[in-house]
Amino acid sequence: MTRILTLGLRAALFWLMTALVALAQTPIQDLLQTYQADVAKPSRKSIETVVDALIASGLPETRSVLSKWREKELYQRDEDGLFFFGEVAGQDIRLIDIATGQTVGAYDKKSVTQLKPNSGVRSVIATALVRYQLTDPDPAKRAEGLTAIERGAEASHLPALRASLDGETDAGLLGRKQRLERLLTIAYDDDSAARVAAIESFSKDLGVDARGALNPLLATTRKAATALPEGVNIARKVKPGSDDLDRDDAYALLVETGLAPALIPPSEQKEALIAHIENGQVAGFDVLNLNTDAARFDAYAALAATGAVRPTVTPAEVDAALASHVFYDQYLEPDAAVTGAAKKALLSIKTRVGLNQALDLGLDGLSLASIYFLAAIGLAITFGVMGVINMAHGEFIMMGAYTGYVVQQFIPNYTVSIIVALPLAFAVTFAAGVAMERLVIRWLYNRPLETLLATFGISIALQQLAKNIFGTQARPLTSPGWLDGALVLNDVVSISYIRIAIFVLGLIFLFLLLFILNKTRMGLEVRAVTQNPRMAASMGINPERVNMLTFGLGSGIAGIAGVAIGLYAKVTSELGADYIVQSFMTVVVGGVGNIWGALLGATMIGFLQKGIEWFNPSNTLAAQTYMIIFIIIFIQFRPKGIIALKGRAAGD
Questions:
Q1: Is the CB of residue 164 less than 8 Å from the CB of residue 177?
Q2: Contact 583, 369 (CB under 8 A)
Q3: What is the dihedral of CA 480, 564, 493, 598, to 10 degrees?
Q4: Domain boundaries, the chain
Q5: Which of 110, 174, 195, 392 could form a disulfide with 459 if both were Cys (CB 3.0 to 4.6 A apart)?
């Protein structure tokens, strides 16, 4: 029995030694053993040799070794000096074979040594890992590496980024790498010529990251000296007492620099005078007379002359100190060629940014104009043909928006729901408009005041009805996914896809209405009634029928506008009230009853409002007020609008 146990122990020992020999002979283990001392106790100088050897080996375990080493998860077994990955397992450390990933066993913490590289060593390892990630066969991994550098760039990333450029096969990633390499060159390269070339390459670039890299190069610090120093990069001289440098701040800078004695604050002077009062006097001055700053200053000066307190600085001495020193702003960047190139590049970028901001403002104005046009085009038809001041027009917009919301409750597909909602909103508001014209408007023709009051009352009633049905809380009208986001031309100019869709919808209705009015029988009848209703009636046209259909058409278009507006605005009972004023202004400014006039009026009001908001972006209410004032003045000079219409609506 003893012999069998002995043989078993020998066999187990043999297999254990065989496993250890095999473990020690793995290529990655052999390489680590070659640099055992430098791996166990690395320094900033020795670590580069080890990392270069690991990378040059091409072994698949290299990346894991570097990552674990950096994260302090690399261990050395004390009994034989072999290296393993380690995991904490209670009071022990579970060692894992680097090559196979298999668990070797659990060891007491005292029998293994955890490798804890310092920050300098970890920085070198991190750079090597970045190089690995930037050359990873998976494009997604390379993109992740670029994103990581963009979020937290370091000087150590520049060599790795440059080394990865030649082997990059993805055109998109290559462009990102080249751009990022130029940005890092500006910040971290030691070659002045390379930095200047990189700066000049961004002179026409509108990217925020480019400005973020260039602006720090022009950062300055204010300094004072007896004379302008030589060999420093000076931005400009500053004169005390100017808008750029207050006299008090200038003297405080001299004191801070050690070029002038500190001023004695009035509070400290007062305390010193109080502390030296004797028999009602201070240095020969009666306390009762020390009721002005000048008197206290003289008393303090006399006290300082006795050596009892430290002397203060007189105004004349302050003037002399300021006159005998120079004040200047010094660039934090020492290279004048770099700051000169950065200044030129930023000036060029600023000009281009201004032009693109003007373009962006124009697109915003065009977008707002298309919204106003959609909201007002129905009113332009009804007001122009019928002469009816319909204060409930905004509520037809609101009804269209709520129609879209109801449709989406039954059709969850947002694209399909919008396609269904547009004609349904037209049908609902067309019917509501016809009903309103038959029940109310037809009895109030040629009575504008009564029409205004009646439609205003209907407006309030419709708002309350909407509150009773849908509540006061805003309801969502969700746009399809393909309308999410924005069309981005550059870092300055962008426009949302929803606004583009509204602009396209406005164009569609513009051409559709022009076709109806100019190419159809109904359009012919509408134009005839607009020009001369009596003559139209004598020709067999029914003016009442034309008025009814026209009012319904205008109301239906308002419903479609409500669906479009509801895609980006809050759908509430007050939705229409937010656009009724702009709709009337659009119609009046453009010219009553004219489609082209409504288009021009909407364009004028949209651009005007955006322009005023640009001058005063924090107060949109003031912008609308100024816009109304401008329009009132405009109407004084052109009461019939941009395009005057002849006929009944024009008062002929």
A1: yes
A2: no
A3: 160
A4: 2-121, 135-218, 220-331, 371-589
A5: 392
